UniProtKB/TrEMBL annotation:
Superkingdom of this protein's organism: Bacteria
A Pfam family assignment: Glyco_tran_WecG
UniProt KW keywords: Glycosyltransferase, Transferase
Gene source species: Paenibacillus lignilyticus
InterPro entries: WecG_TagA_CpsF
PANTHER family: PTHR34136, UDP-N-ACETYL-D-MANNOSAMINURONIC ACID TRANSFERASE
UniProt-recorded name of the protein: WecB/TagA/CpsF family glycosyltransferase
Amino acid sequence: MGIPVPKLTMKETIALIDQVIDERRPELFHVVTLNPEITMSCQHDAQLRNIVEEAGLLTADGIGIVMVSQLKRNPLPERVTGCDLLLQLLQLEGTNARTYYLLGASKETNQLAAEEIERSYPGVKVIGRHHGFYSEAEEERIIGEIEGLSPDILVVALGAPRSERLIHRYKHKLNARVAIGVGGSLDIIAGTVKRAPAIWQKWNVEWLYRLLNQPSRWRRQLILPRFAFRALMYKDKS
């Protein structure tokens, strides 16, 4: 659908982000975990399309994107979801352990996630955090706090595409090395939402597990067949 996703494995993605942090680049490195919902929105939302095109890295967040790439005979190697990416980054140890700022989720979930990260990943430091239910008037103060703390990785869990818009809007002020929109990952880390068992993940039906446990998601899931049809019919005009 005209959006180039690099053919990187999870291991290669981690290595790239690690390198970016070590290089201390002056500009923010925005990682967009691209899912079918964002991809479809990009077809009619010019601002979001621009955000995606300007991102430092896109990853295939969703088996739908990987499957379409395979059917189009230009296969991506694997899923690199926001949740898995965050968990893999947290597992880096020693000199590669990073500082984090957590923005998003509810007040309770945000606190629980920060406590769980520092308990489970020795060496990782959550140097700041704020829940996602803040007023417009508070936003500038929160951005100023992030700027002052200068985290290695800014984790934004405000939901897509709100996370992507915020990162892009303040990319010159955040003073972080890397910023990633991670969807509901803080809920999973905090334990307030249960992730699909490993076997569901292995068979790439994590979306079905979420639907069965959260039937209210059915309207969102309707976008998957629409995405698949449109992506398979897409012809590059260049």
